[in-house]
Each structure stands twice: as C-alpha cells, then as structure tokens.
Design goal:
single chain, 565 residues, alpha+beta, BirA Bifunctional Protein, domain 2, Threonyl-tRNA Synthetase, Chain A, domain 2, 3 domains, 9-stranded mixed beta sheet, 4-stranded antiparallel beta sheet, 15 helices, 37% helix, 22% strand, binds glycine
Length: 565
C-alpha cells in the first residue's frame, strides 16, 4: 500500500462515518503572530472545542501539513522529520448530557468510545494490521489530574487487544500548552512498539497555567502519515518508504554516492529540502528572522550536508518543478555559496570559538550556528554551551536592533517588521474604544491607515477635540496597555457579531462568518470589533501610546495620528 492510498483510505474511512473532510491549513497559522508554524492538525480548530456550535460539522477529518523544528537535531536517524503530514479526526461539542443541548452539532459529536473504536477498526480492518502487533497506552493519572479509567475500560473491552499500559503525563496527556488551549488525556496506538496514533480527549482547558474542566468535551487525533506508511511497508527506516525514495534516488544521482553509505547526510538533505519546499509554497521566504530564518537554516544545512557528500554546485532546486520554489532555492543557494567556502576555512583553522566568533560566522559568512557546531566537530573541536548561548544572545540582540528601539520583547518568537504594524493595529482598537468613552458611543471608525511608524485613524465627530479629551483618551489607552489584557478572536455570523455589540463595518465584503477581536475579559471586553486581524496576543506588548496629531479630515470627520513609543 502506497502513501497516497493510505491517506485516501483514512479520509474515506472517516467520511463514511459522518466526518466532513476539510483541507489542510497553511503551515503559517492565520491571525496568530505568537506561533511560528502549524504543528498539529487541531490548531485550525482550536477555538471550536470551546465554541462547538460555530463549526459547520461536529465531525471533521483532515490530512494536515505540520512543521516541528523542536527535533531538528534528531533528524538524520531512522524516524525523525521536521515536516510531516498528520492524519486526524476531530469531534466537537460532546457533553455527557447531549440530549439537553440545543446546539446544532449536539448528538453528532462523539468522545472516547467511538474514537477508540474508530482507531482500532481503521488499523485492524481497513489497514489489516495484525492485532498482535498493536499495543496501547492510556493516562494513569498524575498530580491533580485523575487517571483515565474510562479509556482503560474501553480498551479492555476490545477483543484481540492484549497490551494496555498505563503511562504518565508526558506520554499520555496532550495540549498545545498555550493559554486557552484545550487538552486532555490521550490513548496511544503503537505498532511493533512504534507510536503511530495519538488520540487526545479534550476535557480540560488551560487557564492561568492550570487545566480546568471544560464545558464541552472533544476528540483530537493525530497520526503521522510517514510513520504509518513505514509501519505498513514494514520498513524501520522512514526514508525507505515511497514518500522519500524519489528524493533519495535523486540525491544518489546528483552526488554519485550511495544512500546506504551516507544515510545521515542523505536523510538531512531529504528532510530539510522537503520542509523548505513546503514553507516556500506557503509563502515563507529565506530571511534573517522569524519563519524566514528557520527556512534559511533548513536550506543551508541541506547545502552543507550536500557538500559533505561531494556536491559542490547548486543542487537544491533540481528536485522540484514549481517555478517559485526553484527560484527561491536557487537564489538562496547562490547567495550562500559565495561565502560558504571561506566560512568553512575559518571553522577549519579557528582555534577558539567564542560567542562572538560564532555570531560573526553567521553575520559575515552566512553559516548558521548549528552548522558551525557540526563542522567544528568534524575537525575534532567541541564548542561549549556557554559560547553557543553567548552567540544566540548576540544574534537575538542583532535581530532586535532592527526593530523600533523601544519595542517590548515579543512573546514566543523573534519579531519582524510587520509586528510594528500589528501592534499599532491593536492600538487602533483600543483607541476607538477609548474615543467612544470620552466622546460618546456614536463615534465610529471612518477609515484607517497603519504603517510601521504610526497609525492614522478617522472617525465621526463634529468639533475639534479639546486638549483634555486627547489626554483622557491617551490615559485610557495606556491604562489598558498596562493591564496587559488578552486579545482573543472569535469567528461568528454577522448577526451574532451585531447582537454581541461588536463595532466595525458590517457590509457585504465579509463572508457569512466574521472575525471578532476582543480585548480584555471575554465576557465583558473593553473592545469588541469586527476585524480581519492580525493582532498581538496581549496589550502589554504595545508600549506607550501617544497621540501626535488631531485634525480635520473632512466635514464631520476628525483624524488622529498616533504612535507607540
Ligand atoms: N494533536 C495531537 C498530536 O499532535 O499528537
């Protein structure tokens, strides 16, 4: 069975069981500047575990492209990948009193029993994996979270499933781990001792660092396609499956070397280029910061590994058809090769690797840290963790310098220029809410224009604002910034948005669902506006708000210019 067939079988299996098949979302999460990449199938559905009535189907299945860079140093062994496809089935809005619910999705959702049975059925009946090869684990309980006895009982009731093991939090509890994320105990399916499928039973929500019982329960499962294919093809090496063989044999041709003798280099090249292509296809371009920096490191590491197996000319674009992908790879490789040899010579002859030397090797020669560490090792020299940390610090400082000097540290990642605009965008929402307090609730937005440097905001008001009104508006906005309020988004119908009191432009440009951004307590937010985003995660990221100008724009319309400093 080939990978394409397995992917198809999975989606059809769940479609036959009432699931709506939805497309993969982008590797670059929408409206979420705090996360770099999509790392799990449930990410695009996160919100529906709390608001199940907003999704078009209580049962969904997807094949989601994912990128996880946490294991990047493990890549090179038999099974680790940075990019992979995750097969998943999802259920939303389950409660133990489904019958009482008025929600449209009630009754169609499911929880542990069906999820476990679907999993077992798919593996043993659809894929015909021998039952004796399959084992499972469930959550044994840890700290204040009780054991998942319910799953244990369901597993025990399955004929032919002989191995059921209780395990701890790190194996059988899953959540994205960010504030507001659903989470819960899991059941894992293993084949020949290799973990293939993770069934998450969302019955908690992470609030202020604690898992609190959630109003609704739901299911989120994830099964790595590449690993599953390896298991089915009975290959211990994921790179020997039909997913990777074409790229492996292409590397053999280009390098005139054999995979069997250079496994580690081949695997890193294959994995990294596959990830690079997926990122470029989703609009990421190589850069010195953020997502672009991850992409750059993947491409450059593939090039250095290529050099180690004797490839000394541009090759990264040779594997791919897409013109945009080819151009990006070609440009990045040409740029890197200009300085690569000189940089490698320095690594070869360098006696001491201080943090500054490591940093300069990237700044001047474009060689990312992990490559320096690996190359130096090839010449028998270890680089200490202190030096690595020092160089990472220098790099971060350098990256931050390219932002407005007074900008607050952006949580969860390195900022790029666009973040300035995002911060001002969130500030504009605070500004409108403050204007409505100071000038009256009939004030609405009549236009805005936001650049990295400043925001320009037009609104209806007859007179020139008084100096004390301007001061009052600034004071309110800065108070809300200092309260570090959360910014949350909900998707809802226009009718719901209107009745919730959201401000914003209600016109036909919007689809039937609109995004409503709330700043502050979700029950009673300070600001509630229809908007496409993006926004910062918390107002504390904004800095100090200052109105630099208040003037007439046209008859009955005032214009404010403001900055964050
Ligand atoms: N969301 C389930 C997983 O990533 O395993």
């Amino acid at each position: 069975m080939k990978s394409a067939e397995i992917r198809k079988k999975f989606l059809e299996f769940f479609q036959e069981r009432g699931h709506k098949i939805m497309p993969s979302s982008s590797l670059v999460p929408e409206n979420d500047p705090s996360v770099l990449f999509t790392t799990a199938g449930m990410q695009q559905f996160k919100r529906y575990y709390s608001f199940p009535d907003e999704i078009s189907s209580a049962r969904i299945a997807t094949c989601q492209k994912c990128l996880r860079t946490g294991d990047i140093y493990e890549v090179g062994d038999e099974s680790h990948l940075t990019f992979f496809e995750m097969l998943g089935n999802f259920s939303f809005g389950w409660t133990r009193k489904n019958a009482d619910l008025t929600q449209t999705n009630a009754g169609k959702s499911y929880f542990k029993k069906e999820a476990i049975e679907f999993g077992w059925q798919f593996l043993t009946e659809e894929l015909k994996i021998d039952k004796a090869r399959i084992s499972t684990t469930y959550f044994a309980g840890e700290k204040e979270i009780p054991a998942d006895e319910e799953s244990a009982k369901i597993l025990e009731g399955i004929a032919g499933l002989d191995e059921i093991k209780p395990t701890g939090f790190s194996e059988t509890f899953w959540s994205l781990g960010t504030e507001g994320s659903p989470g819960g105990p899991t059941v894992e399916f293993y084949v020949d001792g290799i973990e293939v499928w993770n069934l998450v039973f969302n019955q908690f929500v992470l609030r202020e660092g604690k898992y609190q019982p959630s109003e609704f329960q739901g299911v989120d499962t994830g099964m790595g396609l590449e690993r599953l294919v390896a298991v089915i093809e009975s290959k211990s090496d994921i790179y020997e499956t039909d997913i990777f063989l074409p790229i492996i044999s292409e590397i053999e041709k280009i390098s005139d070397k054999k995979y069997g003798e250079n496994k580690r280099e081949f695997r890193i090249i294959a994995d990294h280029l596959r990830s690079a292509v997926a990122l470029i296809s989703d609009g990421v371009v190589p850069a010195n910061k953020d997502r672009g920096y991850v992409l750059r490191r993947l491409i450059r590491r593939a090039i250095v590994k290529g050099r180690q197996i004797g490839i000394n000319k541009n090759f990264t674009a040779d594997f791919f058809e897409d013109k945009n992908v080819k151009t990006e790879l070609e440009n990045e490789e040409t740029k890197f090769r200009k300085t690569l040899e000189n940089g490698l010579k320095i690594i070869e002859t360098q006696k001491e690797f201080s943090g500054k030397v490591l940093f300069d090797l990237y700044q001047t020669y474009g060689i990312p840290l992990e490559i320096v560490v690996e190359e130096a090792k090839n010449f028998g020299r270890e680089i200490g963790s202190g030096e690595i940390q020092e160089s990472e610090k220098l790099l971060r400082q350098h990256q931050e310098l390219s932002r407005t000097a007074s900008a607050g540290m952006f949580k969860g990642g390195l900022a790029d220029d666009k973040i300035e605009t995002t911060r001002l965008h969130t500030a504009a929402h605070l500004l409108l809410a403050a204007l409505r307090i100071v000038l009256g609730a009939d004030v609405s937005q009549k236009g805005s224009n936001i650049t990295e440097e400043r925001l320009r905001f037009d609104f209806n008001h007859q007179e020139k604002m008084l100096p004390e009104q301007i001061t009052e508006v600034e004071k309110i906005v800065n108070e809300k910034i200092s309260e570090n309020l959360p910014v949350e988004m909900e998707e809802m119908s226009i009718v719901e948005a209107k009745s919730s009191g959201a401000t914003g432009v209600f016109d036909d440009r919007y689809g039937d669902k609109v995004k409503v951004y709330m700043i502050g307590d979700i029950e009673n937010p300070f600001s509630r506006e229809i908007c496409g985003g993006p926004h910062v995660a918390r107002t504390g990221e904004l800095g100090h708000f200052k109105i630099t100008k208040e003037e007439s724009s046209s008859s009955g319309i005032r214009r404010i210019k403001a900055i964050l400093e």
